Predict the structure.
Amino acid sequence: MPALRAGYVMSQEDRFIDIEIKLAHQEDLVETLNETIYRQGRRIDQLEAMVASLADHLRTVQSTRQGPVNEKPPHY
């Protein structure tokens, strides 16, 4: 049974056009989502590299530190 739209029966050609429009919108959405996922993946890679660099820096600072971390000041 043909779909009703605004008080008239859609022809088969109208239905195909409607489906093609919906498909075009979905293809655009999929492309947008793919681009977003790609950018997020690159950003995650950058953040992981930054975290690794900060962890290395922290280990270096801790290994070269003189004396205990919670040492009381000399006036106590």
User: Anything to note?
Assistant: The chain has one domain: 4-63. The longest helix spans residues 12-64. The beta strands are 4-5, 8-9.
